[in-house]
User: Which sequence fits this backbone?
């Protein structure tokens, strides 16, 4: 199952609301996760089951969608949110989207 | 909280075998987790390699299956990756990760990751 994220990169300012989309090549129910990765660090689980916030993750992060179309929204960007974001499906053997690089405008 | 630590050679010769180990601390490898390997080539995205359960059951990425072996050593509370016939394309940061059941549906997701170890394939 292929995952396509858009956009591939995004420039935004602190306080902005941003949305990243992830489209699956076939239906995956809600078996989708979102990760944040900062340079030189391991990915960090933000959202799983498409919309469940992982413990300890700020509430400005939210996820939605099911089937083939999913979104990750950050309601008000903070300086520490500038990173690369990946979606991942676990409906079949796990695959990741190509990533969305979120940069400071 | 489970912690994971990868270890192994940082340099492997072409056509050789890459061997890495992931030590599990703060929990038992015999818990209800799947233990995974994920890699990331320089400047690129993430690729799942495969996973193992403490019973020895494995799942592998079809694109790597012919070259990958993942094993578990319950006595040492660790699991290992072997990737054979390596080329420069296998140069990457290799992560081990724990896939565990999370509420409310208790499906499995990769929640705990090691810090990663860089493996370069070069003569």
Assistant:
């Amino acid at each position: 199952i292929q995952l396509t994220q858009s956009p591939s990169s995004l420039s935004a300012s602190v306080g902005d609301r941003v949305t990243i989309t992830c489209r699956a090549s076939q239906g995956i129910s809600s078996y989708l996760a979102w990760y944040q990765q900062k340079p030189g660090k391991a990915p960090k689980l933000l959202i799983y089951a498409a919309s469940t916030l992982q413990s300890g993750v700020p509430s400005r992060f939210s996820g939605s969608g099911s089937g083939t179309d999913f979104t990750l929204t950050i309601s008000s960007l903070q300086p520490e949110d500038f990173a690369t974001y990946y979606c991942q499906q676990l409906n079949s053997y796990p695959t990741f989207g190509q990533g969305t690089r979120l940069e400071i405008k | 909280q489970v912690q994971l630590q990868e270890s192994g050679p940082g340099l492997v010769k072409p056509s050789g075998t890459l061997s890495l180990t992931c030590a599990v601390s703060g929990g038992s490898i015999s818990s209800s987790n799947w233990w995974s390997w994920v890699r990331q080539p320089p400047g690129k995205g993430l690729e799942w390699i495969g996973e193992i359960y403490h019973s020895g059951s494995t799942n592998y990425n079809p694109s790597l299956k012919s070259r990958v072996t993942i094993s578990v050593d319950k006595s040492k509370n660790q699991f290992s990756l072997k990737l054979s016939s390596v080329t420069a394309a296998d140069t990457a940061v290799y992560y081990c990760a724990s896939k565990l059941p999370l509420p409310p549906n208790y499906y499995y997701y990769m929640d705990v990751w090691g810090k990663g170890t860089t493996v370069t394939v070069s003569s």
Summary: Chain B touches chain A at residues 36, 45-48, 59-62, 95, 97, 102-105, 107-111, 113-116 (CB under 8 Å). The longest strand of chain B covers residues 92-102. Chain B has no helices and eleven strands. The radius of gyration of chain B is 14 Å.
